[in-house]
Design brief:
By secondary structure, the protein is an alpha/beta fold. The protein is built from seven helices and twelve strands. The longest helix has 12 residues.
Length: 221
Amino acid sequence: MTTAPMARSKFLALNISVSQDGFMSGPNQSEENPLGENGTKLHEWVFKTQAFREWIGLPGGETGLDNDYAARGFENIGATIMGRNMFAPSRGAWTEDGWQGWWGPEPKFQHPVFILTHFARPALDMGNGTVFHFVTDGIEAAVDLAVNAAQGKVVRVGGGANVLHQFLEAGILDEIHAVIALVELGSGELLFSNPQEQLKNYEAQEPVISGDVRHQTYKRR
């Protein structure tokens, strides 16, 4: 009996919160203000959802359309890829400062997370299935590692903007789900720095309005 080939992992950028003027984060990011000035306002929609609250170990939360979108960001994920800024506020060579990510001692990923960086660092096993791997050979190496780890499940691609730009340029993302909040940041990191070029191979789906946000999905043709 032959075994059916494993399905190809899809690469999805999900629940990417963005301002009305196109920014994923505000200016002046820091450890005290990791999303930049007013950046947390972009994410107020997801903070209220049952799916997100459950992911961080809190009870309650709202159900409905926003929750449905939020929940998809946690379902069937076999690996995550993100940039260094999504993991740590520091720059340059790693130091022995004890930093283990923004998510505390028990991050809820519970799958391998591949962090793009220019500086090598041993893998960090958080003991609950979450293992942070630090990839210095670019997105191609991260993609190969994530596909192997995901075993046919979804590979979720997070920020920052530079990481998403690299994946768009490489034509790897199968889908981008942006959530546009009723906030203007004025400056920061743009989700699409050159939308006409970056989205030329994607088809915009009909936007979905929910509460104070608009869900906009782009699927690769």
